[in-house]
Design brief:
Layout: E1 7-10, H1 14-24, E2 30-34, E3 47-48, H2 50-58, H3 62-68, E4 70-72, E5 74-79, E6 84-90, E7 103-105, H4 108-119, E8 125-129, E9 132-138, E10 143-149, E11 152-158, E12 160-163, H5 170-174, E13 179-183, E14 187-193, H6 197-201, E15 206-210, E16 216-221, E17 229-236, H7 242-246, H8 248-258, E18 266-272, E19 275-279, E20 283-284, E21 287-289, E22 295-296, H9 304-323, H10 330-358, H11 362-377, H12 379-389, H13 392-400
Parallel strand pairs: 1-2, 1-12, 2-8, 5-15, 12-21
Antiparallel strand pairs: 3-7, 4-7, 5-6, 9-10, 10-11, 13-19, 14-17, 14-18, 15-16, 16-17, 19-22, 20-21
Helix pairs in contact: 1-4, 1-9, 2-9, 9-10, 10-13, 11-12
Length: 407
């Protein structure tokens, strides 16, 4: 592999780092830029689905993720007004479909640390923190990235540039790729607490509470070790001020309203604007998009980072082939495969997940919960449901897409 075939990557989160690892292991020179001075301790995106564990397992990462995370084969749906368990799904039903019939709750920053531990000794991979990509220029045989550092402006040439730089992607904007979709009116409020919902209330490590007034997600992460932490996610009034929503009085009142009579030590709180967007293409010339720079969705069901890590594997495989003399249109196939499943699965499923929890009309709400209960009680229907929610059917669909579908 020649030095002039170096791949540039913008973004040092898990998706960018995974791209760097997969390409670097093939002997490809990689130079990754990240605007931050070090890895970010971002607690978001903990759930890693079976389909993504298959991708990460091939890269030899799952054992370390299990060591620092939590293995969770079960998830539950609850009716919040009645406090009744509606449905419980056990990923063990997928034991014949995958080597990983469970999820691993491994926070995003831990995944990044694991990836970095593999990258640090790879001589063909450069990780440059404190480097902000500010512009790109494409030519027929290369792409040039303009990068701002503490010491001044730099220019870096590469064969291709991967934008893994998040929802506000500079790469996507510089390439003039549209980001199609919408933004939800309400925001998501995330409160993390030491309160043990499993020991005190019998909840599984992953829980979804349906409520016509205020739904909730509640799940456990390992944090720095036993006993771990629990995250709760609520919808937040779009018209309320951040100060009002995040005040001590407000966050404690919200938890007391939903889980009354308990004492909560809140160790982390955050407020997010939520988008449902997909880039109009994941490839424009020598610029490629992966992860949040290519697609954003609400977090119910935990599909965002999973989709990004799956992007990385698909892209790294095809880009390696191209750099080794394979046809350039493999990168068009990457864009078609990953964009199609981002729309057909991630967007559709995450929107459906939200509607499922927030349905207000009484008859429709009862029908939704009854359908969930019947699905969970029927092993055949439950397996079909799990194949989709675990993203296994999404990966099967992606692999079956050919360029003929674009015709």
């Amino acid at each position: 592999m020649k030095a002039d075939q170096r791949v540039l990557i913008s973004g040092g989160g898990p998706v960018g780092l995974f791209c760097a690892l997969l390409l670097g292991r093939q002997g490809i020179p990689v130079r990754l830029f990240d605007v931050n001075d070090e890895l970010q301790a971002d607690p978001r995106a903990a759930t890693t689905h079976p389909a993504t564990l298959e991708v990460l397992g091939k890269a030899g990462l799952v054992e370390d993720m299990a060591r620092v995370g939590l293995t969770a084969p079960l998830f539950q749906f609850w009716d919040r007004p009645s406090r009744e368990l509606v449905a419980q799904f056990d990923l063990a039903l997928l034991a014949k479909d995958t080597a990983y019939p469970y999820v691993i709750q491994c926070e995003q920053f831990k995944t990044s640390k694991i990836l970095m531990s593999r990258l640090i000794d790879m001589p063909n991979v450069e990780i440059l923190f404190g480097h902000e990509l500010t512009g790109i220029e494409q030519k027929s045989d290369r792409v040039t990235a303009s990068v701002r550092t503490k010491t001044g402006e730099e220019k870096h040439d590469g064969s291709y540039l991967i934008g893994a730089d998040g929802g506000r992607s500079t790469v996507r904007k510089q390439a003039e790729i549209a980001f199609e979709g919408f933004t939800w009116a309400e925001r998501f409020l995330v409160l993390t607490t030491t309160f043990d919902f499993n020991a005190r209330l019998g909840y599984s490590y992953r829980n979804y509470f349906a409520d016509p007034d205020e739904w909730c997600n509640c799940f456990k992460v390992a944090a720095d070790g036993p006993p771990g932490l629990w995250r709760t996610v609520f919808p937040a009034d779009a018209n309320a001020s951040e100060a009002d929503l995040m005040s001590d009085e407000a966050v404690h009142a919200r938890l007391q309203k939903f889980f009354p009579g308990e004492t909560y030590d809140i160790v982390h709180r955050n407020l997010y604007t939520i988008h449902q967007r997909v880039a109009s293409t994941f490839r424009k010339g020598r610029v490629l998009l992966a992860g949040d720079s290519a697609h954003l969705n609400n977090s119910i069901g935990g599909m965002g980072l999973n989709g990004g890590l799956q992007d990385a594997e698909n892209l790294a495989e095809k880009l390696t082939q191209v750099l080794n003399g394979g046809p350039d249109n493999l990168l068009d196939l990457y864009s078609l495969q990953r964009r199609t499943v981002s729309i057909e699965f991630v967007q559709a499923q995450s929107i459906a997940n939200k509607k499922q929890l927030e349905t207000r009309e009484p008859v429709a709400r009862k029908q939704t919960l009854d359908d969930l209960a019947r699905t969970a009680a029927d092993p055949v229907k439950a397996r079909e449901y799990l194949l989709r929610s675990s993203m296994l059917s999404m990966q099967t669909r992606a692999a079956a897409i050919t360029l003929n579908e674009a015709a």
